[in-house]
Specification:
By secondary structure, the chain is mainly beta. It is 7% helix and 44% strand. The chain has helices at residues 10-19, 22-26, 354-359, 400-405, 447-452, and strands spanning 46-52, 55-56, 59-68, 75-82, 90-96, 102-107, 117-123, 129-136, 142-152, 158-166, 169-179, 192-193, 201-209, 212-219, 227-230, 238-241, 253-259, 265-271, 276-282, 293-294, 302-303, 307-313, 322-328, 337-339, 342-344, 362-366, 374-377, 383-387, 390-394, 408-412, 419-423, 430-434, 437-441, 455-459. The strands form 10 sheets. Strands 1, 2, 3, 4, 21 and 22 form a 6-stranded antiparallel β-sheet that branches. A 4-stranded antiparallel β-sheet has the order 5-6-7-8, with no helix packed on it. It is elongated and about 80 Å long.
């Protein structure tokens, strides 16, 4: 267990808040605070699965496949999962089609080379991929066709937004719309430029909410990701936000959005100017965003990707209204135990005293703040909650803050039978042990953190 900086106390954060301008609070930029965001997950026995298929900073000839259950901590599913028979694979975008297969479309050449085709491959399991074909984009005098992005409309139609430049100026890109004209995704409509976004925009990513299309293109002059809306997929779009409107900074590209379990929207983007890959969240339909944070583990490795979200069977399950003890997944003799109101991880065994066994036994109940989550009660009737990021037991004071602090969302653990507990009111923060003390902390992308935050529910000691 490596050393780490101490988490700031709530009092420290409140003092920091007092020193922040009002605009920082409105934009969710207060350090360490997550506003009104709350964690959520599918029901017992199901899991959310986010999949990305990025090319690599060190190699644009292949892609890795990663998956995550919280859209933050991505674990490698397969290294070098797909290598095309010729050319390169950059900017891979992935969907799951109605035929049950996963499809990627991608840029087929390096940025230095003329690139008039986009590639296609498919997989039944996200691990083994088969090359399908390269498609020549029929734009007159085409020089480069880059960053094809899937978009499945609410009517079920499958589309691709691809950034194209011509020989007149090979570095001035315009977004074009292609629509699949068969269910096999082998025939495409004539390309149509998206009206209103205009030239010198690249990497346009679109989501639809209700009847409105929301587009996120990169402006190649300013290097900022902009925001536009339209009532039709092909436009005309009105650019609503420019410059550093979201606080993400410049030299950002490859935006991709996905809706989280808690209803918020997360944008991922490539911070190619500084080597990090970032995410940022919005809970007010893109008006304001949280301060960008680097994705743990894959920053510096993954480049330009999109995300698919699925709800799959086989997720974690934990019975409520039962007593359980919780064993560390990576320290098999150590268990949760309440010690002087704090939750620690001492050794507990058959030779432990009755009092020690009783302190290592907890009642699992429905979450105080959300019945789909979980809360934990000790023998004295106190509830597990986080305070100053430390896990401890306190009497329920009936406040909303306490209920949220004492509610956790169930996630899959690293080993068979193990689970992880995500903080309800600090999404992306997990109960983990460090120096045999339990805290809530944000993952750092390492396997050690995943093991330290995984626990096995077992028969109660008392």
């Amino acid at each position: 267990m490596t050393s780490h900086p101490a988490a700031p106390s709530r009092r420290t954060l409140l003092r920091a808040l007092a020193a922040l301008p009002a605009s920082a609070l409105l934009l969710g930029e207060a350090p360490g605070l997550l506003g009104s965001a709350l964690a959520a997950a599918p029901p017992n026995g199901s899991a959310t699965r986010y999949t990305i298929v990025p090319f690599l900073n060190s190699n644009d000839g292949t892609v890795n496949v990663y998956q995550s259950d919280d859209a933050t901590d991505f674990r490698l599913l397969r290294s070098s999962a797909y290598t095309p028979p010729a050319g390169r694979i950059r900017d891979a975008s992935v969907i799951r089609h109605t035929d049950g297969y996963y499809y990627v479309t991608y840029t087929t050449r390096t940025w230095q080379d003329t690139s008039t085709t986009i590639g296609f491959a498919r997989s039944s399991d996200r691990v083994n991929w088969t090359f399908l074909y390269n498609y020549t984009v029929p734009v007159a005098n085409l020089s480069r066709a880059w960053a094809p992005e899937w978009f499945v409309d609410s009517d079920g139609s499958v589309n691709i937004i691809v950034s194209c430049s011509t020989t007149n100026d090979q570095w001035i890109f315009t977004p074009y719309l292609l629509r699949a004209t068969n269910s096999a995704l082998t025939a495409w409509s004539s390309p149509v430029a998206l009206a209103g976004i205009g030239a010198n925009h690249i990497d346009t990513f679109i989501v639809k909410i209700g009847s409105t299309y929301h587009a996120f293109p990169k402006n190649e002059t300013t290097k900022y990701i902009e925001y536009a809306t339209a009532s039709n997929l092909a436009g005309p779009y009105t650019i609503r936000r420019t410059g550093d409107w979201a606080g993400w900074g410049s030299y950002r590209e490859g935006p991709a959005l996905v809706q989280l379990d808690n209803g918020g929207w997360r944008i991922f983007f490539d911070g190619y100017g500084d080597g990090n890959y970032y995410y940022s969240d919005s809970y007010d339909t893109f008006a304001t965003w949280t301060a960008p944070a680097a994705l743990p583990g894959i920053s510096g490795t993954a480049r330009h990707f999109t995300v698919i979200k699925e709800t799959v069977a086989g997720g974690p399950s934990l019975a409520r209204n039962t007593t359980r003890s919780f064993r560390s997944a990576n320290y098999s003799t150590r268990y949760w135990q309440q010690q002087s109101s704090l939750l620690n991880l001492p050794v507990v065994s058959g030779s432990s005293t009755t009092a020690e066994k009783r302190a290592a036994t907890f009642t699992v109940v429905a979450g105080l703040a959300d019945a789909s989550g979980y809360s934990f009660r000790d023998a004295a009737g106190n509830y597990l909650r986080h305070w100053d990021f430390r896990a401890r037991f306190d009497p329920n004071d009936g406040t909303s803050t306490f209920a949220k602090d004492a509610t956790f969302v169930l996630r899959t653990g690293t080993s068979s039978g193990s689970v992880r507990f995500e903080s309800y009111n600090y999404p992306g923060y997990y109960l983990r042990h460090y120096a045999y003390q339990l805290r809530v902390e944000r993952p750092n992308g390492t396997e050690l953190f995943r093991q330290d935050s995984s626990f096995v529910p077992v028969a109660a000691w008392a």
